[in-house]
Amino acid sequence: MDAVAIEPDHDSFTRVARALRDEAPGREWRQDLSKGMGAALAPGVAAVRSAVLSRGGGAGHEGQPLRQAVAAAVHVVPLDSGATIVADHTPQVRQFAHAPKRLNERGGWRRRVFGSNVTVIQIGAPGWFDDTLQDNSRLHAAAYAALDGRAGRIARKV
User: Can you tell me the mean pLDDT for 17-35?
Assistant: First the structure.
């Protein structure tokens, strides 16, 4: 069986490793990456928030509306190697901590009707999160562009 061996030039490899080591613990590096990824994923956050708010609302009640609370909980979380869009828990909204998850599910959840002992199954807004972000190649392209900017920063130091 034929094989091709690729051996990096030791000096080049050392320069890249040194540049990575110099950048990795830097606060400025993390802030730039976080800012770039946040800007790249901002359209996705806006689309997800719009999706949950546009799914209609229930009957009026006291307190913060559930869908507005869930929309406010959607944000970008920077990671070491990129970022992700998440919807945080909402425990302070009518003691419904897992509202983002339940609204996104297909089946719904059981709840009691206010002021009675009647239990109903409430359907949320199935797919408001997953379906909205399912096929969003523009977000992927923008995220890769932000990461390429970071790679360019390292390349300039090599």
Answer: 74
Q: Do 39 and 69 touch, CB atoms closer than 8 A? A: no
Q: What is the pTM of this model?
A: 0.71
Which amino acid is present at 138? Answer: R
- CA gap 103, 66 in Å, rounded: 10
Confirm if 136 and 120 have CB atoms less than 8 A apart.
no
Neighbours of 52 (CB within 10 A): 26
Residue 15 belongs to domain spanning = 10-157
Question: Count of domains in the chain?
Answer: 1
pLDDT tens per residue across span 124-134: 778 888 888 88
Tell whether 28 is covered by a domain: yes
Using alpha carbons, select from 75, 122, 74 the residue that is nearest to residue 94: 122
Position 1 in a domain = no
Q: Is residue 5, in this structure, part of any structural domain at all?
A: no
In a domain, 3, yes or no: no
